[in-house]
Amino acid sequence: MFYSIIKxxxxxxxxxxxxVDSQGIAASPFLRDGRFGVYHYDVTAMKxxxxxxxxxxxxxxxxxxxxxxxxxxxxxxxxxxxxxxRWAPSYYNVQSWRYVYAMRDSPYWDKFVNAxxxxxxxxxxxxxxLIVVLSNKYQIHKxxxxxxxxxxxxxxxxxxxxxxxxxxxxxxxxxxxxxxxxKIARAIGLKSDDYKIEAMIAVGNRVRLISNEKITDxxxxxxxxxxxxxxxxxxx
Length: 236
Description:
There is one protein chain. The chain has 236 residues and is of the alpha+beta class. The protein has helices at residues 2-15, 43-47, 57-61, 75-85, 109-114, 118-124, 151-168, 181-188, and strands spanning 30-32, 40-42, 97-103, 129-136, 138-141, 144-147, 171-176, 195-205. Strand 1 and strand 2 (40-42) form a beta hairpin. 26% of the residues are buried. Belongs to the nitroreductase family.
């Protein structure tokens, strides 16, 4: 009996604050999970997307938003994103990913912003932090330098964990390919060809809980999945 009461109290703690609409989806802009404090799901994004099969709500809620309010985030919050990123799988656990960041109040900030293309500068300058994502193309194995064929793939896995952690915290975590590689290499002091600049990321606080930005859809599964034999027409 005692344990049943405890379980009931825990249930109420987790779910008592969730308002559900007629469709069974939380009516508030964020569905919080009381077990884990800061984490929640963007219900607005979840309502605007249709899945073919059940998946975790955090995946469905991830969006590459642009609107940020320019307010700082704590360094510990940013480090939590890197903490998430380090737990990605990789080839023989080589962990090829590398990150270089600039907080908006740091002397590195302007160089990072200026390395972006003008279209990205307009909105990314309101971020709390900008991050350069790199991968190490090689590993030293038994004294020999060897190419890591999966360095880009593994770094992508690391970045996605960062994105999901930021999404769960209600942050904007937006990847960018629009930047000048030579400028960013100079900005971070990169001189070795052993590393590939993969992307830049803008991290910041949302302007509002409910964003007016477009909720993007994805291709149906049969557009990119086939059984047994690769079917090129499926991917067109």
